[in-house]
Specification:
Strand content: under 5%
Mean pLDDT: 82
Order of helices and strands: H
Distance between the termini: 44 Å
Number of strands: 0
Helix content: 10-25%
Shape: elongated
Length: about 55
Amino acid sequence: EKSFEWGERIPIGIFYKEERPTYRDSLPHIKGVPLTKLPVEDIEITVTLETMM
């Protein structure tokens, strides 16, 4: 119903029919920890950057 609304207010976003876990919920090492509190000093991103080049 919401997806067919139109007028002064246009609904935006994604409508799900069923509850699904978020991507973050599937990563146990960060579950329950704010991302801003995780250490970033030991992260190796060279391989990831090379695949993007």
